[in-house]
Each structure stands twice: as C-alpha cells, then as structure tokens.
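Figure caption, in words: inputs first, then the predicted bound structure.
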Amino acid sequence: MLIAQLSDPHVMAPGQRAFGRIDTAALLEQAVARLLRVEPRPDVVLLTGDLADGGAPAPYRELRRLLAPLPMPVYLLPGNHDNRQELRAAFPEADYLRQDPDFLHFDLDLGACRLLALDSLLPGSINGELCERRLAWTAARLEEAPDKPVIMAIHHPPFTTGLAKMDDYGLTRGGTELAAIVARHPRVERLLCGHLHRPIQVRWAGTLAMTAPSTAHQMSLDLRPDAPLTMHLEPPGFLLHQWIEGQGLVSHLLPTGAFEGPLPLGGAH
Ligand SMILES: [Fe+2]
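Bound structure (fe (ii) ion present):
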C-alpha cells in the first residue's frame, strides 16, 4: 500500500493567483504530474486540507479539474480555507464525505490499515478545533476493528512546531483530548497533518506525527519566537507513505519541480 499525501494546494478560481502571484493551479498540476510518474503508482491519494481558497464553487470546480488525471481513489480532507458545503457539492460521488451530516470526517479501509481522517474546520477561523462530538466520533472509531493499524489525518496539527505564528493559528480546542485518546491506542501508526506548509516530524501521544509540505508555497523556516508569518517559494513537494508488512509505515518526502537525475554513478556514491 502506497499513499501519496498532498497538502495545502490552495487552488483559486481559474485565472487567479494566491497573493496575486502564486499560480497554485499550475503547482498542483506539477504535483499531479510528478505523482503519476511515481513507480509503483500510489494506491491512493490523500489531500490534507486547504484544498481551495475562498469558499466559492469556482475554486472547487478547478480543484476537481486538476485532480481528474489521477486514476486512483483520492480522499479530500478540509482545512481552514475550505467550505464543507462547497467541497461536498463539487464531489457529489464522494460517499466518504457523507459519513456524517455535519462534519467531513471519515474512516476507510486501506488494505492492511485504516485511514481515520478528522475534520478540524472551524468556519470563519484560521484556527482549528475538535468539539466534543468530533472527539467522541474519533474515540468510537478507534474502539472498532482493534486489530488494524490506523493512519490518522487532520489538517491542523495538535502539537506545536516552533513556527510561532503558525502555532498561534493551530488547533485551539480538543488537542489535549485527542492526544489522550490516541495515547490509549498504540496501533495509531502515524498522524498526518497539513496547515504548516513544510515537512516537520515530532513524537506525539506515543505515535509519530508529521506535517506535509504544500504543493505550492512553503512557510518560512524562522524559529524566532517573534517571527512574522512569511512564506518562501522553496521547492514544493508531497509525502509518500509506504506500508511495509512487518515494519509499518515508511514516509518519504518527494520535492516537485525539475531536478536532474537519475545520475549514472556507476555503483559509487
Ligand atoms: Fe494552507
């Protein structure tokens, strides 16, 4: 089982650019093209939020167009820039987005694993939250199928990263409770997050948690406590998570862009 995790594409309406300059559609197109060259081909694609900017129908139609070349199942998770109703409306065939009338959390079988995707959206806010009902849903799902490893996903990381402004814009409710739930279930193999627009790993609640880069713009790596929120157009990318029987989940970072290689090194390195 090979899972590609794309995050924070921030697709705009056709012809619009993020911050007036970043062609997020072209950058998602680049990520999709790279994904299609991965061999063996990923079995599923998971997008960890901030799918489309603005909450209107047009960016979601554009997102759908950009994801259409992917032949494998694609699973969409909302972020703070998303709108639940518009997301559902743009993907009417996506039954997994209709497991709950109020939230876009879902659980699915992924071969040897289960995917448990949480909805941390708090409409109108950059911050995220997990209310009592979403926490109860998560706890109940973890009580089920106790023999299967779980890959959990959420847009807002429930941990701090040292990127001060993004930590301010984090999960403001439910993070401690989620950590307590996960700590009771050692079979949670990984927590996959978005929101940070750069790859970060941390041990959290007894499991390994990580954030994905954006397929578009990256948050600046500035660890000063008073650092302003800025972005860099560093090479974007996505994560590839491979389930290896007897080992567990092995995660790779794949930058997207034009890079030379493979180089003929004749066996030396
Ligand atoms: Fe984002």
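The CA atoms of residues 49 and 79 lie 4 Å apart.
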